[in-house]
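Journal club prep, notes for RB
We'll compare a predicted complex against what the paper describes. Inputs for the adenosine-3',5'-cyclic-monophosphate case:
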Amino acid sequence: KKERTLAMIKPDAVNKMGDILQMIRDANLILTKAKMTKLTWREAADFYTEHQTKSFFNNLVQFMTSGPVVAMELMGDEAVSVWRRLLGPTDSGVARKEAPPSLRAQFGTDGTRNAGHGSDSLASAARELEFFFPSTAGHGPANTA
Ligand code: CMP
């Protein structure tokens, strides 16, 4: 089934964008939108609002605002799960125990600094795509520059 998902290259892996685009291409996903942006604290906290009560929330927002990110819309067959498989396990240390080497195994560091993000469902993808690529003016980081 053809799907769209929101993929994000986190601040620790933005300089690996070339390698990551190659992985996307090799997985037969199509890059349909892309934007580099530096998230404000408020934007990062809003994007990760479902994690706001977690112990790692402040570290996560700190990391996500430490430099620019690249947000991408990817399209293709089973795009949500295909991109999450390319990412690998959330914790890059865990990811390095698995084969083949995933994006997080290659470019991440630990459970927070993990190189990339992917929507976990079609519903999340719809929300997260709207966050970065709003269809109506006035929402998300697109019109706040
Ligand atoms: P991501 O897929 O972007 O979704 C939420 C993020 O929170 C996750 O990647 C990690 O960067 C971070 N995260 C998730 N679980 C933990 C954890 N147990 N400890 C620290 N950071 C975490």
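Talking point for the session: The radius of gyration is 14 Å.
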